[in-house]
Amino acid sequence: MPLVLPARHKISQLAPAASRSKQKVLVALTADFTAAVLAMNLACNDLSGADLGDTDLSHVHLGGICWTADTQWPAAWAERIRAASTYADGTYQIRDDG
Q1: pTM of the predicted protein model
Q2: Which of 89, 83, 47, 88 is nearest to 64 (CA)?
Q3: Over the stretch 61-79, which tens digit does the pLDDT of each residue have?
Q4: Which of 19, 33, 64, 75 has its CA 20 to 30 A from that of 4?
Q5: How far apart are the first and last CA of the chain?
């Protein structure tokens, strides 16, 4: 389940009595946390060039996974994954509906 981050405008609702400098720190921490979550999602969802040829994918949710032409899929899955993916700038991404 994806993590939903609070919008920046909610910082003032979380700390209405905080001083202006404390609110700036909270905004900066929120931005850093958001960047860290995005980087972690990218690292977890990027299978570019991976050799998955012997992997059992029967119980794996693949929606959102990014991959490249160098990624090796199990033979029984390769065509299905290609059909369920969109392509842009050298990278494929498996649609969540695929």
Answers
A1: 0.59
A2: 47
A3: 999 999 999 999 999 999 9
A4: 19
A5: 17
Residues contacting 27, CB < 8 A, separation 6+: 8, 11
Position 12 confidence tier, pLDDT thresholds 50, 70, 90: low
Q: Is the pLDDT of residue 38 over 90?
A: no
Q: What's the rounded Cα separation, in Å, for the pair 1 and 98?
A: 17
The answer to whether residues 63 and 96 touch, using CB atoms and an 8 Å cutoff, is: yes
Q: Provide the residue type at 7 as one letter.
A: A
